[in-house]
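Now for a specimen:

…
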Amino acid sequence: MVRIPNINVPSEKPENKLLWHSLNCELITPMYGGGIESTKVDKDMPIRASSIRGNLRFWWRLLAKHKWKITDIQKVESELWGGVSNNNDDGKAGKVLLKIAKQPKVNEQQHLVDYNDKSLSALRYVLFPAYNEKDKSKSPHKLLKAGYQWTLQVAFSHDISENQKKQVWESIRWWANFGGVGARTRRGLGAVKVDENEFFQSVIALSEIVDLGFGVQTFSASNPNSAWVNAVKKLETFRQVGAGRKDHNSRSHWSEPDTIRDYTEQALPEHSERKTQNNAFPRASFGLPIIFKFKGNNLKGDDDSSNKDPRTTTLTLQFEDEKYERLASPLILRPYLDEQGEWHSLALVIDDVLCDMNGSSYKPILTDINHDQVKLDDECVFWNEDYADEVRPLQNRHNKPLQAFLKYFKG
Protein backbone atom coordinates (compact mmCIF):
# COMPACT_ATOMS: atom_id res chain seq x y z
CA MET A 1 0.00 0.00 0.00
CA VAL A 2 1.35 3.37 -1.00
CA ARG A 3 1.55 5.77 1.87
CA ILE A 4 0.34 9.26 1.01
CA PRO A 5 2.37 11.88 2.85
CA ASN A 6 0.43 14.35 4.92
CA ILE A 7 2.45 17.53 4.55
CA ASN A 8 1.16 21.04 4.76
CA VAL A 9 2.90 23.07 2.06
CA PRO A 10 2.83 26.75 2.91
CA SER A 11 1.33 28.91 0.18
CA GLU A 12 3.49 31.53 -1.44
CA LYS A 13 3.18 34.90 0.23
CA PRO A 14 1.42 37.46 -2.00
CA GLU A 15 4.36 39.85 -1.72
CA ASN A 16 6.71 37.14 -3.11
CA LYS A 17 4.63 36.32 -6.19
CA LEU A 18 6.04 37.39 -9.52
CA LEU A 19 4.01 39.70 -11.71
CA TRP A 20 4.12 38.45 -15.28
CA HIS A 21 3.65 40.89 -18.17
CA SER A 22 2.46 39.51 -21.51
CA LEU A 23 3.55 40.67 -24.98
CA ASN A 24 1.82 39.34 -28.09
CA CYS A 25 4.43 38.56 -30.77
CA GLU A 26 4.20 37.56 -34.43
CA LEU A 27 6.69 36.53 -37.11
CA ILE A 28 6.55 38.93 -40.05
CA THR A 29 9.20 37.04 -42.05
CA PRO A 30 9.96 33.28 -42.00
CA MET A 31 12.24 32.00 -39.24
CA TYR A 32 15.31 29.94 -40.14
CA GLY A 33 16.52 27.41 -37.55
CA GLY A 34 16.20 28.36 -33.92
CA GLY A 35 16.18 24.84 -32.51
CA ILE A 36 18.81 22.76 -30.72
CA GLU A 37 20.21 22.14 -34.20
CA SER A 38 20.84 25.67 -35.41
CA THR A 39 19.46 25.08 -38.92
CA LYS A 40 16.26 23.31 -37.85
CA VAL A 41 12.95 24.51 -36.47
CA ASP A 42 12.02 22.68 -33.25
CA LYS A 43 8.44 21.55 -33.85
CA ASP A 44 7.68 21.28 -30.13
CA MET A 45 9.36 24.52 -29.05
CA PRO A 46 10.06 26.73 -32.09
CA ILE A 47 10.46 29.91 -30.03
CA ARG A 48 12.85 29.69 -27.08
CA ALA A 49 13.01 32.08 -24.15
CA SER A 50 16.76 31.49 -23.88
CA SER A 51 17.25 32.65 -27.47
CA ILE A 52 15.21 35.81 -26.91
CA ARG A 53 17.17 36.48 -23.72
CA GLY A 54 20.40 36.37 -25.71
CA ASN A 55 18.97 38.80 -28.25
CA LEU A 56 17.80 41.18 -25.52
CA ARG A 57 21.23 41.15 -23.92
CA PHE A 58 22.73 42.14 -27.26
CA TRP A 59 20.37 45.10 -27.63
CA TRP A 60 20.92 46.06 -23.99
CA ARG A 61 24.71 46.17 -24.56
CA LEU A 62 24.26 48.28 -27.67
CA LEU A 63 22.05 50.76 -25.81
CA ALA A 64 24.36 50.73 -22.79
CA LYS A 65 27.19 51.89 -25.01
CA HIS A 66 25.40 54.36 -27.27
CA LYS A 67 22.43 55.64 -25.24
CA TRP A 68 23.03 55.21 -21.52
CA LYS A 69 26.83 55.70 -21.74
CA ILE A 70 27.52 53.00 -19.15
CA THR A 71 31.25 52.65 -18.52
CA ASP A 72 31.58 49.18 -16.94
CA ILE A 73 29.13 47.44 -19.27
CA GLN A 74 30.14 43.88 -18.34
CA LYS A 75 29.61 44.45 -14.61
CA VAL A 76 26.28 46.24 -15.01
CA GLU A 77 25.06 43.63 -17.51
CA SER A 78 25.88 40.81 -15.10
CA GLU A 79 24.00 42.54 -12.28
CA LEU A 80 20.86 42.83 -14.40
CA TRP A 81 20.87 39.80 -16.67
CA GLY A 82 23.00 37.38 -14.67
CA GLY A 83 26.34 35.80 -15.45
CA VAL A 84 29.60 34.64 -13.98
CA SER A 85 31.04 36.66 -11.12
CA ASN A 86 34.58 38.02 -11.44
CA ASN A 87 35.42 36.70 -7.97
CA ASN A 88 34.42 33.06 -8.33
CA ASP A 89 32.97 30.51 -10.71
CA ASP A 90 29.44 30.67 -9.33
CA GLY A 91 26.79 31.99 -11.68
CA LYS A 92 25.03 35.18 -10.70
CA ALA A 93 21.23 35.10 -10.90
CA GLY A 94 19.64 37.64 -13.20
CA LYS A 95 16.77 39.97 -12.37
CA VAL A 96 14.83 39.36 -15.60
CA LEU A 97 12.65 36.28 -16.11
CA LEU A 98 11.28 35.27 -19.51
CA LYS A 99 8.97 32.50 -20.63
CA ILE A 100 7.00 31.63 -23.74
CA ALA A 101 3.24 31.06 -23.53
CA LYS A 102 0.51 30.29 -26.06
CA GLN A 103 2.99 28.71 -28.44
CA PRO A 104 1.21 26.36 -30.86
CA LYS A 105 2.93 23.10 -31.68
CA VAL A 106 4.27 23.29 -35.23
CA ASN A 107 2.19 21.52 -37.85
CA GLU A 108 4.36 20.76 -40.88
CA GLN A 109 1.69 21.50 -43.49
CA GLN A 110 0.37 24.60 -41.76
CA HIS A 111 3.49 26.23 -40.36
CA LEU A 112 6.57 25.13 -42.35
CA VAL A 113 7.88 26.00 -45.81
CA ASP A 114 10.90 24.60 -47.71
CA TYR A 115 13.84 26.97 -48.15
CA ASN A 116 13.64 26.44 -51.94
CA ASP A 117 9.89 27.05 -52.16
CA LYS A 118 8.86 29.33 -55.04
CA SER A 119 7.63 31.94 -52.55
CA LEU A 120 11.22 32.35 -51.28
CA SER A 121 12.99 32.27 -54.66
CA ALA A 122 13.91 35.97 -54.48
CA LEU A 123 15.67 35.41 -51.15
CA ARG A 124 18.23 32.82 -52.17
CA TYR A 125 20.99 35.35 -51.46
CA VAL A 126 20.27 35.27 -47.71
CA LEU A 127 19.31 31.59 -47.58
CA PHE A 128 22.68 30.38 -48.91
CA PRO A 129 23.43 28.23 -45.80
CA ALA A 130 20.51 26.03 -46.78
CA TYR A 131 21.45 25.94 -50.48
CA ASN A 132 25.07 25.10 -49.62
CA GLU A 133 24.19 22.23 -47.26
CA LYS A 134 25.96 19.09 -48.50
CA ASP A 135 24.45 16.68 -45.97
CA LYS A 136 21.29 15.47 -47.70
CA SER A 137 19.81 14.33 -44.37
CA LYS A 138 19.57 18.01 -43.41
CA SER A 139 18.06 19.11 -46.71
CA PRO A 140 15.71 20.59 -47.57
CA HIS A 141 15.77 22.97 -44.61
CA LYS A 142 12.31 24.08 -43.56
CA LEU A 143 11.45 27.55 -42.32
CA LEU A 144 8.72 28.58 -39.91
CA LYS A 145 6.25 30.65 -41.91
CA ALA A 146 5.48 34.30 -41.27
CA GLY A 147 2.29 34.75 -39.26
CA TYR A 148 3.24 32.36 -36.45
CA GLN A 149 2.20 33.91 -33.11
CA TRP A 150 3.18 33.44 -29.48
CA THR A 151 3.19 35.31 -26.18
CA LEU A 152 6.39 36.47 -24.51
CA GLN A 153 5.99 36.81 -20.75
CA VAL A 154 8.32 39.01 -18.72
CA ALA A 155 8.75 39.23 -14.94
CA PHE A 156 11.23 40.97 -12.67
CA SER A 157 12.84 39.90 -9.42
CA HIS A 158 11.88 41.94 -6.36
CA ASP A 159 15.31 43.53 -6.04
CA ILE A 160 15.30 45.13 -9.49
CA SER A 161 15.42 48.93 -9.64
CA GLU A 162 13.02 51.09 -11.65
CA ASN A 163 15.89 52.24 -13.82
CA GLN A 164 16.82 48.63 -14.60
CA LYS A 165 13.19 47.90 -15.54
CA LYS A 166 13.22 50.83 -17.95
CA GLN A 167 16.40 49.47 -19.53
CA VAL A 168 14.81 46.05 -20.01
CA TRP A 169 11.69 47.49 -21.64
CA GLU A 170 13.84 49.66 -23.91
CA SER A 171 15.89 46.60 -24.92
CA ILE A 172 12.70 44.71 -25.76
CA ARG A 173 11.50 47.70 -27.76
CA TRP A 174 14.63 47.77 -29.94
CA TRP A 175 14.54 44.00 -30.37
CA ALA A 176 10.88 44.23 -31.43
CA ASN A 177 11.70 46.82 -34.09
CA PHE A 178 15.03 45.58 -35.41
CA GLY A 179 15.71 42.10 -34.04
CA GLY A 180 14.20 38.68 -34.44
CA VAL A 181 14.32 34.99 -33.58
CA GLY A 182 16.23 32.07 -35.09
CA ALA A 183 19.28 32.38 -37.35
CA ARG A 184 20.31 35.13 -39.79
CA THR A 185 18.11 37.78 -38.18
CA ARG A 186 20.45 40.54 -39.42
CA ARG A 187 19.41 39.62 -42.94
CA GLY A 188 15.73 39.84 -42.05
CA LEU A 189 14.87 36.23 -41.26
CA GLY A 190 12.71 35.71 -38.18
CA ALA A 191 11.73 39.38 -37.93
CA VAL A 192 9.18 39.99 -35.18
CA LYS A 193 6.35 42.41 -34.55
CA VAL A 194 5.18 43.07 -30.99
CA ASP A 195 1.67 44.45 -30.51
CA GLU A 196 1.09 47.83 -28.92
CA ASN A 197 1.21 47.47 -25.16
CA GLU A 198 1.26 49.42 -21.90
CA PHE A 199 4.97 48.95 -21.20
CA PHE A 200 6.60 50.98 -23.96
CA GLN A 201 5.82 52.91 -27.14
CA SER A 202 6.33 50.23 -29.76
CA VAL A 203 7.52 52.19 -32.80
CA ILE A 204 11.04 53.60 -32.87
CA ALA A 205 11.24 56.75 -34.97
CA LEU A 206 14.12 57.15 -37.40
CA SER A 207 15.22 60.25 -35.49
CA GLU A 208 15.87 58.07 -32.41
CA ILE A 209 18.19 55.88 -34.47
CA VAL A 210 20.13 58.84 -35.85
CA ASP A 211 20.43 60.37 -32.36
CA LEU A 212 22.40 57.30 -31.24
CA GLY A 213 24.86 57.68 -34.10
CA PHE A 214 23.59 54.76 -36.18
CA GLY A 215 23.22 54.91 -39.96
CA VAL A 216 19.77 54.21 -41.38
CA GLN A 217 17.87 54.38 -44.66
CA THR A 218 14.37 53.30 -45.64
CA PHE A 219 12.10 53.26 -48.67
CA SER A 220 8.39 52.52 -48.95
CA ALA A 221 6.92 49.05 -49.38
CA SER A 222 3.40 47.63 -49.55
CA ASN A 223 3.81 44.86 -46.96
CA PRO A 224 6.44 43.19 -44.75
CA ASN A 225 7.43 40.56 -47.30
CA SER A 226 8.02 42.99 -50.16
CA ALA A 227 9.91 45.27 -47.75
CA TRP A 228 12.23 42.38 -46.87
CA VAL A 229 12.66 41.12 -50.44
CA ASN A 230 13.50 44.60 -51.73
CA ALA A 231 16.02 45.23 -48.94
CA VAL A 232 17.81 41.94 -49.66
CA LYS A 233 17.85 42.65 -53.39
CA LYS A 234 19.57 45.99 -52.72
CA LEU A 235 22.40 44.24 -50.86
CA GLU A 236 22.72 41.54 -53.49
CA THR A 237 23.00 44.00 -56.38
CA PHE A 238 25.41 46.24 -54.46
CA ARG A 239 27.78 43.36 -53.77
CA GLN A 240 27.20 41.28 -56.90
CA VAL A 241 25.54 41.76 -60.31
CA GLY A 242 24.29 45.34 -60.56
CA ALA A 243 26.61 47.78 -58.86
CA GLY A 244 29.16 45.05 -58.03
CA ARG A 245 29.63 43.75 -61.59
CA LYS A 246 27.98 44.16 -64.99
CA ASP A 247 26.75 40.56 -65.28
CA HIS A 248 27.66 37.02 -64.19
CA ASN A 249 30.24 36.69 -66.97
CA SER A 250 32.07 39.95 -66.29
CA ARG A 251 34.72 40.81 -63.72
CA SER A 252 33.91 42.25 -60.32
CA HIS A 253 34.20 45.99 -59.70
CA TRP A 254 35.36 45.26 -56.13
CA SER A 255 39.03 45.06 -55.17
CA GLU A 256 39.05 41.63 -53.48
CA PRO A 257 39.49 39.53 -56.67
CA ASP A 258 42.55 41.52 -57.77
CA THR A 259 43.91 41.40 -54.22
CA ILE A 260 43.57 37.62 -54.01
CA ARG A 261 45.08 37.15 -57.47
CA ASP A 262 48.07 39.20 -56.34
CA TYR A 263 48.69 37.32 -53.09
CA THR A 264 48.06 33.81 -54.46
CA GLU A 265 50.04 34.61 -57.63
CA GLN A 266 47.27 33.06 -59.69
CA ALA A 267 45.30 34.58 -62.57
CA LEU A 268 43.81 33.63 -65.89
CA PRO A 269 45.79 35.40 -68.66
CA GLU A 270 42.79 37.58 -69.50
CA HIS A 271 42.57 38.64 -65.82
CA SER A 272 46.24 39.46 -65.34
CA GLU A 273 45.63 43.18 -65.80
CA ARG A 274 44.10 44.66 -62.65
CA LYS A 275 40.81 46.57 -62.52
CA THR A 276 41.73 48.05 -59.12
CA GLN A 277 45.22 49.09 -58.08
CA ASN A 278 45.39 48.63 -54.30
CA ASN A 279 45.06 45.50 -52.19
CA ALA A 280 42.11 45.62 -49.79
CA PHE A 281 38.97 43.74 -48.70
CA PRO A 282 36.19 46.37 -48.52
CA ARG A 283 33.30 43.88 -48.34
CA ALA A 284 34.64 42.61 -45.01
CA SER A 285 32.77 45.58 -43.52
CA PHE A 286 29.55 43.62 -44.14
CA GLY A 287 30.70 40.73 -41.93
CA LEU A 288 33.06 37.75 -41.92
CA PRO A 289 33.94 35.11 -42.95
CA ILE A 290 33.77 35.57 -46.72
CA ILE A 291 34.47 32.62 -49.02
CA PHE A 292 35.89 33.54 -52.43
CA LYS A 293 35.36 30.91 -55.13
CA PHE A 294 36.55 31.77 -58.63
CA LYS A 295 34.91 30.32 -61.73
CA GLY A 296 38.34 30.38 -63.40
CA ASN A 297 39.52 27.51 -61.18
CA ASN A 298 38.31 23.91 -61.18
CA LEU A 299 35.02 22.66 -59.74
CA LYS A 300 36.59 21.79 -56.40
CA GLY A 301 38.50 25.08 -56.26
CA ASP A 302 41.87 23.55 -55.37
CA ASP A 303 43.95 24.08 -58.53
CA ASP A 304 47.03 26.13 -57.59
CA SER A 305 48.31 26.59 -61.14
CA SER A 306 49.59 30.08 -61.83
CA ASN A 307 47.61 30.35 -65.09
CA LYS A 308 44.30 29.66 -63.34
CA ASP A 309 42.26 32.08 -61.29
CA PRO A 310 42.86 31.64 -57.53
CA ARG A 311 41.97 28.53 -55.58
CA THR A 312 39.09 28.95 -53.11
CA THR A 313 40.01 31.11 -50.11
CA THR A 314 38.33 32.22 -46.90
CA LEU A 315 38.76 35.67 -45.38
CA THR A 316 38.76 36.02 -41.57
CA LEU A 317 40.52 38.43 -39.21
CA GLN A 318 43.06 38.90 -36.47
CA PHE A 319 42.67 41.45 -33.69
CA GLU A 320 45.90 42.08 -31.80
CA ASP A 321 47.17 38.52 -31.18
CA GLU A 322 43.85 36.68 -31.44
CA LYS A 323 42.41 35.12 -34.59
CA TYR A 324 38.65 35.17 -35.15
CA GLU A 325 36.63 33.13 -37.61
CA ARG A 326 33.63 35.43 -37.50
CA LEU A 327 32.76 39.11 -37.42
CA ALA A 328 29.02 39.65 -37.03
CA SER A 329 27.58 41.89 -39.70
CA PRO A 330 26.87 45.41 -38.43
CA LEU A 331 24.22 45.75 -41.16
CA ILE A 332 20.60 44.87 -40.40
CA LEU A 333 18.07 44.46 -43.23
CA ARG A 334 14.40 43.91 -42.46
CA PRO A 335 10.84 45.30 -42.72
CA TYR A 336 10.17 48.44 -40.68
CA LEU A 337 6.77 49.74 -39.54
CA ASP A 338 6.63 53.52 -39.04
CA GLU A 339 4.47 55.69 -36.76
CA GLN A 340 1.74 55.93 -39.41
CA GLY A 341 1.49 52.16 -39.77
CA GLU A 342 3.25 52.13 -43.17
CA TRP A 343 5.78 49.45 -44.12
CA HIS A 344 9.28 50.24 -45.35
CA SER A 345 12.44 48.39 -46.37
CA LEU A 346 15.08 49.23 -43.77
CA ALA A 347 18.88 49.18 -43.70
CA LEU A 348 20.43 49.87 -40.29
CA VAL A 349 24.17 50.12 -39.61
CA ILE A 350 24.93 49.74 -35.90
CA ASP A 351 28.73 49.76 -36.10
CA ASP A 352 31.61 50.03 -38.54
CA VAL A 353 34.43 48.45 -36.60
CA LEU A 354 36.78 47.89 -39.54
CA CYS A 355 36.62 51.56 -40.55
CA ASP A 356 36.24 53.15 -37.12
CA MET A 357 37.94 52.69 -33.75
CA ASN A 358 41.44 52.34 -35.18
CA GLY A 359 40.58 49.80 -37.85
CA SER A 360 44.31 49.20 -38.41
CA SER A 361 44.21 46.98 -35.29
CA TYR A 362 42.25 44.47 -37.36
CA LYS A 363 44.34 42.44 -39.79
CA PRO A 364 42.97 40.29 -42.62
CA ILE A 365 43.75 36.57 -42.70
CA LEU A 366 43.35 34.65 -45.96
CA THR A 367 43.28 30.85 -45.83
CA ASP A 368 43.03 28.60 -48.87
CA ILE A 369 40.98 25.46 -49.40
CA ASN A 370 43.88 23.32 -48.12
CA HIS A 371 43.86 25.27 -44.82
CA ASP A 372 47.15 26.93 -45.70
CA GLN A 373 47.44 30.60 -44.83
CA VAL A 374 48.11 32.85 -47.81
CA LYS A 375 50.99 35.22 -47.10
CA LEU A 376 49.88 38.87 -47.00
CA ASP A 377 52.25 41.82 -46.75
CA ASP A 378 52.26 44.26 -43.85
CA GLU A 379 50.57 46.96 -45.95
CA CYS A 380 47.50 44.82 -46.57
CA VAL A 381 44.42 46.18 -44.78
CA PHE A 382 40.72 45.51 -44.82
CA TRP A 383 40.06 49.00 -46.12
CA ASN A 384 41.67 52.36 -46.75
CA GLU A 385 39.37 55.28 -47.57
CA ASP A 386 41.93 56.61 -50.05
CA TYR A 387 41.09 53.65 -52.32
CA ALA A 388 37.39 54.55 -52.70
CA ASP A 389 37.69 56.22 -56.11
CA GLU A 390 38.96 53.01 -57.74
CA VAL A 391 36.10 50.82 -56.43
CA ARG A 392 33.10 51.54 -58.64
CA PRO A 393 30.29 50.72 -56.14
CA LEU A 394 31.73 53.38 -53.81
CA GLN A 395 32.36 56.07 -56.41
CA ASN A 396 30.31 59.26 -55.86
CA ARG A 397 28.66 57.67 -52.83
CA HIS A 398 30.98 57.44 -49.81
CA ASN A 399 34.55 56.40 -49.04
CA LYS A 400 33.35 53.83 -46.47
CA PRO A 401 31.65 50.68 -47.84
CA LEU A 402 28.73 50.56 -45.39
CA GLN A 403 27.95 54.24 -45.78
CA ALA A 404 28.14 53.89 -49.56
CA PHE A 405 25.63 51.05 -49.33
CA LEU A 406 23.22 53.23 -47.34
CA LYS A 407 23.30 55.79 -50.16
CA TYR A 408 22.78 53.04 -52.73
CA PHE A 409 19.93 51.62 -50.65
CA LYS A 410 18.04 54.91 -50.73
CA GLY A 411 18.67 55.65 -54.40
Notes: The chain is about 25% helix and 20% strand. The radius of gyration is 24 Å. The mean pLDDT is 90. The longest strand covers residues 149-156.
